[in-house]
Please model this.
Amino acid sequence: MIINLTQMSPGESGAVTEIQGGYGLMRKIQTMGIRPGKKITKVSSHFWRGPQTVQIDKVQFAIGFGMAKKILIQVER
Model:
C-alpha cells in the first residue's frame, strides 16, 4: 500500500517510492538522504499538523507537515 509520510504510524517503516514536488523541494529532501528506494521509519509526529520525526540510516530529523505530505511510502500493513 502506498501512503504519504503523514499517514504512517509512529514506529512504522517503509520504502520511499516517490517525491511529489518541484526541483527545489526535491533537492531539499534529497540532501537529507530521502531518495526513492531508501528505507524510512517514522519515529514520532506532533499533534495537529506538526513536524514529523523520521529516521534514515541511524539519523533522525524532523520534516515539516507540508513536505511530509509529498513523500510517498510503500508500506506493508
